[in-house]
UniProtKB/TrEMBL annotation, chain A:
Transmembrane stretches, start-end: 99-119, 150-170
Keyword Membrane: yes
Keywords: Membrane, Transmembrane, Transmembrane helix
Naturally occurring in which organism (per UniProt): Cnuella takakiae
UniProt name for this protein: Zinc-finger
Source taxon at top rank: Bacteria
Automatic annotation (TrEMBL), chain B:
GO MF entries: DNA binding; sigma factor activity
Annotated GO biological process: DNA-templated transcription initiation
Protein name according to UniProt: RNA polymerase sigma-70 factor, ECF subfamily
UniProt xrefs under Pfam families: Sigma70_r2, Sigma70_r4_2
Entry similarity comment: Belongs to the sigma-70 factor family. ECF subfamily.
Entry-linked Gene3D superfamilies: 1.10.1740.10, Winged helix-like DNA-binding domain superfamily/Winged helix DNA-binding domain (1.10.10.10)
Domain RNA polymerase sigma-70 region residue range list: 25-91
Keyword list, A-Z: DNA-binding, Sigma factor, Transcription, Transcription regulation
Residues annotated as domain RNA polymerase sigma factor 70 region 4 type: 127-177
Length: 180, 192
């Protein structure tokens, strides 16, 4: 196998492979082994030399392209614009990790509490039934589930948290709108 | 003679309250950012508006620049996302490689010139025009690699791609550039 083409994906045509290797050589991205192999090919094969010359011309052409220049007033326009704005506080400053950990701890406690409560209410001595599910949903009294002080308190807390979140979001949007 | 201040020094100065120092960064990178914008937005006025927006966004988010990468890499990332957002909003016509309109535009462009005018065009101008005929992604990868002083890894970060993907894209972009030059500017290519 040729060391130049060992690492190429299957399906590459020879000419494309040659171009890819030559571009890597021109860009200075070849390994030492590849460099010496390409230099050998350039000495030995006119086809490689011709392609190298062609690619080098394109490379030099691109290198000589100049950057586009905006209008003379560009910097002044930007500075006029930012004069009306404030630098936003760094994200890491307003996202306090303690708050995130606090919220996570709250939800974990709630989930564990519910699980504990549910498990404590289970009748472990029950022998089960022939039904696959084992529960007769028609006999479940849903009104009792939502008539519990703990559940009601939890839902009220969630609503308050949701309203606080909405308030913060709308406040932020208002600030952005005023800044614009 | 005062040595040129580094980007980081200027950013620290701006963050400490000297907002006017930001003008140094704008002057330093305006042509890079404007060129990137022009690769996406085909019109100088729109490109200037987008470039201005890029600098304003960068200023607003300056406190978030952590110095983990070069400022230019961070700025070009903002430039790329801003350009893409602008294109989506405006639903501007982008010049895709397979879009026949591109060739029609190019053909008309050349068709209006006589042989002497074409001969007078510089090699640089021809390459620049050929870059403008490429898709925004191809034009950007070439611009960042050759003009933005970015490594393949940094370009990958800016474009949200893998370095190897960028390497192949750069290679193919140059093939397509060569094809464009041969197809539309054959007379000038022969003079190279």
């Amino acid at each position: 196998m040729d060391p130049l083409f060992d690492n190429l994906p299957p399906g590459h045509e020879f000419e494309e492979d040659m171009e890819l290797r030559l571009w890597e050589y021109i860009d200075g991205l070849s390994t030492d082994q590849e460099r010496s192999a390409i230099e050998h090919m350039l000495v030995e094969h006119a086809e490689w030399r011709a392609k190298y010359k062609e690619l080098l011309e394109v490379h030099r052409g691109i290198e000589e392209v100049e950057l586009e220049q905006p209008s003379m007033r560009f910097t002044r326009n930007v500075m006029d614009e930012i004069a009306r704005l404030q630098i936003a506080p760094a994200t890491r400053n307003y996202i306090n990790k303690n708050i995130i950990y606090g919220i996570a701890a709250f939800f974990i406690t709630v989930i564990v509490g519910f699980l504990g409560y549910g498990i404590s209410q289970m009748e472990w001595s029950s022998t089960g039934s022939d039904s696959l599910v084992g529960v007769d949903f028609s006999s479940v009294d849903y009104s009792r589930m939502f008539n519990n002080n703990f559940v009601n308190g939890f839902m009220v807390l969630n609503i308050i948290l949701g309203l606080m979140l909405l308030d913060r979001y709308l406040g932020q949007r208002k600030k952005e709108w005023q800044a614009a | 003679m005062q040595a040129e201040r580094s980007d980081i020094e200027i950013i620290e100065q701006v963050l400490s309250g000297d907002h006017a120092a930001y003008a140094v960064l704008v002057n330093r990178y305006q042509s890079y950012v404007f060129t990137i914008a022009l690769r996406y937005v085909k019109g100088r006025e729109d490109a200037e508006e987008v470039a201005q927006d890029i600098f304003v966004k960068a200023y607003r988010a300056l406190a978030d620049f952590k110095g983990g990468s070069k400022f230019s890499t961070w700025l070009y990332t903002i430039a790329t996302t801003t350009c893409i957002t602008f294109l989506r909003k405006k639903k501007l016509e982008t010049y895709s490689l397979d879009n026949e309109k591109v060739f029609a535009v190019a053909d008309n462009f050349d068709g209006g010139m006589n042989a002497n005018q074409i001969e007078q065009k510089s090699k640089v101008n021809m390459v620049n025009r050929a870059i403008q005929l490429l898709s925004p992604d191809d034009a950007q990868v070439i611009t960042l690699f050759y003009k933005g002083e970015q490594s393949l890894e940094e370009i990958a970060q800016i474009m949200g791609k893998e370095p190897n993907t960028v390497k192949v894209q750069l290679h193919r972009a140059r093939i397509r550039l060569k094809e464009k030059m041969q197809r539309h500017f054959a007379a000038e290519v022969n003079d190279l």
